[in-house]
Amino acid sequence: ADDEAPQRPRPENDYEYTISGSKATITRYVGPGGYVDIPEKLDDATVVAIGESAFFNCQTIQSVSIPDCVREVGIGESVQMGGYILLFRGSAFYGCKNLTSVRLPAYLNEIYNDTFNGCEKLCAIEIPETVTSIGSSAFSGCDLLGVRLPGRLTSIGSQAFRENSRIEKVVIPASVTSIGSWAFYSCTRLKEVSFDGAPPNCLAATFEGTSGTVGVYRSNYFSMWKDVIVDGQWCGLTMECPETFSVVFDLNGHGSRTGGGALSQTVRCGDAAIAPTVTPNAGYVFDGWDTDFS
After folding, report:
1. What's residue 152's pLDDT?
2. Residue of 276, 185, 197 whose CA lies nearest to 231
3. Which residues contact 170 (CB under 8 A, 6 or more apart)?
4. How far is residue 89 from each of residues 94, 154, 192, measured CA to CA in Å?
5. Residues ≥6 apart with Cβ < 8 Å to 10
6. What does the pLDDT look like over 141-185, one tens digit per residue?
7. Residue 113: helix, strand or coil by DSSP?
8. How many CA atoms lie within 13 A of 278 on its CB side?
9. Which of 6, 98, 207, 222 could form a disulfide with 245 if both were Cys (CB 3.0 to 4.6 A apart)?
10. Nearest to 149 by CA among 173, 116, 121
């Protein structure tokens, strides 16, 4: 008789899970570890959630890929958005000390407290653009080589990136309105933090415990305001300004320049641009320029 083809391992054997209707929730991982590719279905039910501490303190996993059908990870009250639950809740991967990389679901809205706390080898993660909140200690004690924060992010919790000693530069999106205390505590190689918009009033405590000098840059029209932090202590505010900057006055096709300054000017730092004189087209009234350049 022909030898029977070897049976492929069933993904169901790697998980404990519950099924409600057509939806499955993983409650515990019991597989061999290594590179874990969470399935989209278990017993023909779509995997929509990973339960509280499902991978808690799992020392055998090295990489995890979470499919886009997963809408909730961990515990907590559900939040409904556009027909989907889009949350990371609880300490689902807390203490997975050999975890090095994670692929997150594309539609994630929140990474909750302690999600990857203590994953001391986690060096690579891409945070989806849909994430608006990163919870307290979410990546505390990881080994991230860098972090790109999404453009919709509004809040960073306390100690969120504490003791990530290999992060050297962080760009905070303009959408961020809240950063918790010690969010980047003891990020010992951090040298530069740039704010795309107005920064929250958090600078000293946020970067406490950094070693050396950290330049915290804040955009302000044509100049860059720089907070100098030495060994975690805020030492004052200075202004860095380029030698020249460009100014463009845009009429948007509703008028013409009849005098004054040119519509496009190169201006030295410390000087002011000269506003053009404008004659509006028929049917329009010129009320002035949107920004004061004096």
Report:
1. 94
2. 185
3. 147, 149, 184, 190, 192, 193, 194
4. 12, 17, 30
5. none
6. 999 998 999 999 999 999 999 999 999 888 889 899 999 888 998
7. coil
8. 21
9. 222
10. 173
Q: Is residue 28 within 8 Å of residue 42, measured between CB atoms?
A: no
> How many other C-beta atoms can be found within 10 angstroms of the C-beta atom of residue 168?
12
Cα–Cα distance measured from residue 234 to residue 288, given in angstroms and rounded to the nearest whole number: 40
How far, rounded to the nearest angstrom, does the alpha carbon of residue 279 sit from its chain's CA centroid?
Answer: 46
Structure tokens at 106: 């594309």
Q: What is the pTM of this model?
A: 0.69
Contact indicator for 251, 289 with CB cutoff of 8 Å: no
Residue located via tokens 């860059």: 224
- At residue 83, the pLDDT reads 47
* Residues of the chain under the 70 pLDDT cut: 1-10, 74-90, 201-204, 211-243, 269-270, 291-294
Q: Residue 248 pairs with which residues in a beta bridge?
A: 264
